Structures are given as C-alpha cells and as structure tokens.
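Team,

Forwarding the record for the chain on the shared tracking sheet. I've put the sequence and predicted structure together so nobody has to dig through attachments.
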Amino acid sequence: MEKNVQDELKALLLKEKAELEENLARIARPVDKEKGDYETTFGEVGADREDNTTEVEQYTDNLPVEITLEKNLQEVISALDRMEKGTYGLCENCQKEIDIERLKANPSAKTCIKC
C-alpha cells in the first residue's frame, strides 16, 4: 500500500476514533480508554421511586448505544494497531490485500469482500 494512501486512511481512522470517543463520553465513562472499553452511565436524577425509574430508563436507553459505539471504537483501535504492525490492509482470513476502495469506505475493515 502506498504511503500517501495509508496516511489518508490513518487520518480517517483517527477522525472516526475522536468522534466515537466524543459520543461515548456523553453516555459512558472510560474503563480502559486504550482498549476502547467504556461503561454506560446515567445522570442521578433523585432518590424517590420515579427518579429511580427515570435513571433505569436512561441507562437502558444508553446501554445498546454504548455497546455499538464501543464495538466500533475497538475496530478502529484494532485497525490503527494493524497499521503500526504493518499488517493493515491484509485480509485476516485469506491474507490477500483488501481493495483500497473497500478500505476508503470502511477503514477498519478486517476482511476482503470475498471473505
């Protein structure tokens, strides 16, 4: 892979990483930021039964969003790690190069279209 293309893809990954971390910060707190591990949070509304219900609803609403954002963040971190190791752009299944257009559409892709 040409260096300028890899630099372009790395910039896309870093931008996506920053956006994911920003969105996660709104609903979760980092447990291990390097690994992209977060824990869903909720605002403390109060101590009575209705307030507790509101807190549970907020947590229940935030949890699936946090899980999805966290998974995406971990995929981006993994792609950046593969760049550092020199294995970025190679399919994890067949070891062939992943098409550049696929990587531009999804910079954290781990596999080629066939796999």
